[in-house]
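Appendix B. Worked example

We walk through a single record from start to finish. Start with the input: the chain for Mitochondrial FAD carrier protein flx1, Coemansia spiralis, length 325.
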Amino acid sequence: MQQGQSLKMARSFSGSLALDHSLAGIGGAVISTVAFHPLDLVKIRLQVDVASQGEAVLGRAARATRYILGTDGALGLYRGLGANLAGNCASWGLYFAWYTWIKDQMARGRSAQLESGASTLSPLQHLVAGATAGALTQCMANPLWVVKTRICTTTRTDALAYRGLFDGLYQIASKEGVRGLYKGLAPGLLGVAHGGLQFMAYEEMKRYRLGDRRDGAAEPLPSLEYALMSSSSKIFALAITYPSQVMRSRLQQLPGPMRSDVAGAPRMVAYTGLGDVIRKMARSEGISGFYKGFGPALLRVLPGNIVTFLVYENIAGFFRSHATR
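Next comes the structure step. The output line below is what the pipeline stores for this chain.
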């Protein structure tokens, strides 16, 4: 941007840009989570399954779906929805709040965003802000993801199954302590680059499309463009960081070996830590094991990510157009 140009900086609707973006992120998270939870459930079942690498992915996904329907019925596809909603709302809300706040600190206390929604920061600053926000969010929301993983990898009739989010948090805290609530944190932190890479790509594409609006005009982009930018940035980040999600799910599953003799049930083994996960997966499942569930993940995260970002951008745009502070 040229020196001396008069640019319209973003104003706040609630009194805090971080809160504006947090509320917009939560709105997007609620809609996408409810709509695409069944795919998330199947994805987690495949992530923890130690089936040999020779088995067809679609076959495993179909068997997992049939097993869920056979044991818990159609409602079984929404098992763990409460924990998933809590985790996604907390994660997206916290992430956007931290991300916006960190960007403003990088802008030395000024708004890091123009009224149009374009960022004033560099790609490296977006990467650092996204990764830092991801690490902070992961540390705060990890207990919710542990409960979600354990509910999604059990049926309601399993002896060790949790009755819900709060029952899961209580049982883990009472039986395994704080360490139990933070299982899978290490690979989760390894995956914080995901948010940084995604938002770096997304912000740069958005800035490129808004680049000719040097007067800071607040006219939003068409929804199709937001959809294309959010999906392409998500694929870019997911392809690089997906193995960390698989390893996190393996560490967050219920302790001890689980059933392996029922068709469609996830075949799980116990792990002692991140190094043990890497060794066992590399030895018995190969590189493809680190990408288990990637197909359902794409089917879930692409439309889910598009919905999240469309809702987010529309809510954020409403806040911008009605901002007075």
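Two observations about the output. The chain has one domain: 17-316. Residues 17-316 form a domain with the Mitochondrial carrier fold fold (CATH 1.50.40.10).
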